[in-house]
Amino acid sequence: MSLLAYAIRSHTTQGLSRSIQPLRSSLLRNLQTASTHNPEAEAFLEQAHSGVSFLSLNRPKAKNAISLRLLKEFRECLEAAHFDKSIRVLIVRSTTPNSFCAGADLAERRTMSKQDVDKFLLDLRGALGKLENLPMPTIAAIDGPALGGGLELALACDLRVAGHSVTKIGLPETKLGIIPGAGGTQRLTRLLGLSKAKNLIFTGRSLSAEEALEYGLVDYVSKLDVSAADRALELAEEISANAPLALRAAKQAISRAPELALEPGLDFERASYEGLLHSKDRVEALNAFKEKRAPVFKGE
Fold first, then answer.
1. Residues 80-106: pLDDT tens digits?
2. Whole-prediction pTM value?
C-alpha cells in the first residue's frame, strides 16, 4: 500500500446553511470517523465538500509528532493538493480531537545520525515552503498543542484557527538548547514583528488560545464547545464561495508584498488583476450581479 492515502469522500454540503452548526459538526465527526479506516496513513487528503479539503495528520498516539514517515506523506499530500484545481481552500488539521502537532518526533530524533537530522531539517523546510506556496488559501485548525515544529507548520498556513481550550502554542526550542529550525525565527518575525517574536522565542513561553489571538499569532479562536476544525470549516466555506482564480491571484499578490517596494508591488498587483479581467468567472460575477443572484464560479 502506498504511504500516501489520498481519500476523497464526497459530502454534498453546498446547500448547507451556515446557520446550522449541528450539521457541520456532524459532517466533521463523520470525516474523523472515516479517517480511522485508513490506519496506515500518517497524513492524507480528504474532501470536506466541494471546494474544501482537509490535509489530515494521523499519528494519534504520538500527538502527530513529525516523524520521517509523516513528513514524507505530508509532502506527497502537498504535491497532490498543489495541482488539484478542485481545492479552493485547504485545512490542515488533526484526525484526533484536542490535538494538532507536537513538533518533531524527539524519540525518533534520538536514533538519528547528524546526517539524518540534517536531511530531516532540509526536508521539513522544503515541506513547509511547499505549504506556504500552495496556490490556494490554507488554514491551520489548531485543536491541541502546537509546539516547535507544530507551530512552525501552522505559521506556514495563511490563517490560523485555535480551539477555545488550547493552552500550549509556542516555540520552546531555547529551553531544549536549540532555536526554531523550520522557519520559526523568520515566519514568526514577519507575522508579529521583531519585539514580539524575540519575546516568544527568548522565553520559550507557551500561550493559550486567547493569548495567541491577542498576540496576533492566531486569527480566530473557536467558541466554547466548538472545535477549531469546525470553525476553520466555516471560514473555509466563506472563502470558497468566492472566485477561485481571484483567490489564487490575491494570495500571490499579498505574499509578494513584503519583499517588494511599493511601486514594483503595485505593478505586480496590476499584472495579477489584469489576468482576471477576461476570465469566465469575472463575466459570471457581472452577470450574477445584474441578475441579482449568487454567482456560480468554476475557476475558469
1. 999 999 999 999 999 999 999 998 888
2. 0.84
- Give the chain's end-to-end CA distance (angstroms, integer): 35
Whole-angstrom CA distances from 61 to 65, 105, 109, 206 are 9, 12, 17, 22
- CA dist 148 and 5 (Å) reads 26
Helix, strand, coil percentages (3-state) for the chain, rounded to 5, are: 50, 15, 35
Segment 19-69, tens digit of pLDDT: 334 434 434 444 443 444 466 899 999 998 889 999 999 999 999 999 999
Positions marked active-site? 104, 149, 152, 173
Which runs of E-coded beta strand occur in the chain? 5-6, 43-49, 52-57, 89-94, 138-142, 146-147, 159-162, 169-170, 206-207, 220-221
Neighbours of 191 (CB within 10 A): 14
- From the list 21, 14, 88, 18, the residue with the least C-alpha distance to 49 is 14
